[in-house]
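Board notes (copied after class):
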Amino acid sequence: MTEYQTVIVRLSGRTRDDEDAVTDLLNERDRMGWIFHSSTALPRSRLLMIFRRDA
């Protein structure tokens, strides 16, 4: 069975801060066994990120 987790990241508009936030999120999820699956830009400077893992 495959589990999915979605995370909405609010982007600040400052490239360095946004890169750090996304990198931290990816590293955190990786340590918990989640694999990055896909992402989609949302309105109002938000990013939807989807992670998956086999249970």
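Comment from the instructor: The first helix runs from residue 15 to 31. The two ends are 5 Å apart (CA to CA).
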